[in-house]
Design goal:
alpha/beta, Double Stranded RNA Binding Domain, six-stranded mixed sheet, elongated
């Protein structure tokens, strides 16, 4: 009986260990080990968003070691990203002497993202992601008193609130989109 309990514990331990190893790559199909990132298509008037999103998606895939980034000819899969729109809209207003004035702006970035499986010849997902960053009218986002990314932190408490307000909002939105893409890749199956 003691031998059976010991064997059961050993099997349970092996099962738990193998499951934890498997979960490092999430639920990515086993036949996909790499990805080609097609150059981002931009249908918006904002030319800089492409650079930030491209940099962030590459950094995340490399740092998380989810899929190896390869050239098109050696790829098991491909990610296509199209920036559909970048829109700045008033977020908060205050009463001015004659009219209302904008105190905070919301930059929304809308992107279509498709992940294609070359081995099976099918689309794994095709989604639209919209993310945002908030910015004020000050010259420096690090002292504007705004929670620019919705994480509950402001100014010196928040490591990603640096630089010019609109550019920082752009970076915040690009980072959020890249995070959502990575989450979608690892939770698809």
């Amino acid at each position: 009986m003691k031998l059976i309990k010991t064997l059961f514990k050993l099997i349970l331990l092996i099962g738990m260990t193998s499951c934890s190893f498997y979960s490092l790559k999430g639920t990515i199909p086993s036949h996909i080990s790499n990805i080609y990132i097609k150059p981002i298509t931009n249908k918006s008037a904002d030319q800089e968003i492409v650079n930030y999103l491209n940099e962030k998606i590459n950094d995340l895939l490399i740092s998380e070691n989810i899929l190896e980034i390869v050239d098109y000819d050696n790829a098991d899969s491909r990610i296509d990203i199209t920036i559909l729109d970048v829109l700045d809209s008033p977020y908060t207003l205050s009463k001015g002497t004659q009219t209302e004035k904008v105190d905070e702006w919301k930059m929304s970035v809308k992107a279509r993202v498709s992940w294609l499986d070359f081995n099976k010849g099918e689309t794994i997902f095709n989604i639209v992601i919209t993310e945002w960053g908030i910015y004020g009218t000050s010259l420096d986002i690090s002292n504007d008193g705004i929670d620019n990314d919705g994480d509950g932190l402001i100014d010196s408490e928040d490591s990603d609130e640096i630089g010019t307000p609109r550019n920082s909002a752009r970076i915040i939105a690009a980072n959020k989109i890249a995070d959502k893409i990575l989450t979608k890749i690892t939770s698809t199956w």
